[in-house]
């Protein structure tokens, strides 16, 4: 079996907001096909967004609607990445622990409420 592309797909009630968010985070563009959007980066599919009018955002971490999937995005410059995702519509769910060595992460929600993490190595 040869897999041509690996794509994570998010459900969202607001396709435009969700697909614009991930296109902005990944530096891509949105291919709008009605009830389905594909975020393309350098012409290759990276993230899908499908219309789910009754989508209920997960309530991270322990709400009645649990998270079902999340992305860990490892970044070189956390401050820059944080500003970018916030400008695109993310919300902080859990601030970074402030680890002084190793790695650290901060938990966010995208516009549809899906959790994701910005992760980075803490400089020594």
Q: What this model shows, in words?
A:
The protein has 124 residues and is of the alpha/beta class. The protein has a single domain, classed as 2,3-Dihydroxybiphenyl 1,2-Dioxygenase, domain 1 (Roll), CATH 3.10.180.10. Helices cover 18% and strands 36% of the residues. The protein is built from 2 helices and 8 strands; from the N terminus they run E-H-E-E-E-E-H-E-E-E. It has a 4-stranded mixed β-sheet with strand order 1-4-3-2, covered by helices on one side. It has a 4-stranded mixed β-sheet with strand order 5-8-7-6, with helices on one face. Strand 2 and strand 3 form a beta hairpin.
The share of residues in helices is 10-25%
Tell me the name of the CATH class. Alpha Beta
The fraction of residues assigned to DSSP E strands is: 35-45%
Please count the helical segments. Answer: 2
* Secondary structure: number of strands: 8
CATH homologous superfamily assignment: 2,3-Dihydroxybiphenyl 1,2-Dioxygenase, domain 1
As a whole number of angstroms, the C-alpha radius of gyration is: 15 Å
So, CATH architecture?
Answer: Roll
Structural shape: globular
Biggest sheet overview: 4 strands, mixed
Poorly predicted segments: none
What letter string, H or E per element, gives the SSE order? EHEEEEHEEE
Mean pLDDT: 92
CATH topology: 2,3-Dihydroxybiphenyl 1,2-Dioxygenase, domain 1
Report the span from N to C terminus: 43 Å
Strand order of the largest sheet: 1-4-3-2
SS-based class: alpha/beta
Question: Any idea how many domains?
Answer: 1
Domain VOC: 3-121
Organism: Amycolatopsis rifamycinica
Protein name: Glyoxalase
Pfam families: Glyoxalase_6
């Amino acid at each position: 079996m040869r897999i041509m592309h690996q794509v994570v797909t998010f459900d969202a009630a607001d396709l435009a907001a969700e697909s614009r968010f991930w296109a902005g985070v990944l530096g891509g563009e949105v291919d709008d096909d009605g009830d389905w959007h594909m975020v393309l980066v350098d012409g290759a599919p990276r993230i899908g967004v499908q219309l789910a009018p009754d989508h209920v955002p997960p309530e991270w971490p322990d709400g009645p609607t649990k998270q079902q999937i999340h992305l860990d995005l490892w970044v070189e410059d956390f401050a820059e990445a944080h500003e970018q995702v916030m400008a695109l519509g993310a919300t902080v769910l859990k601030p970074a622990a402030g680890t002084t060595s190793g790695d650290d992460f901060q938990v966010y929600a995208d516009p549809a409420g899906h959790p994701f993490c910005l992760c980075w190595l803490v400089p020594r």
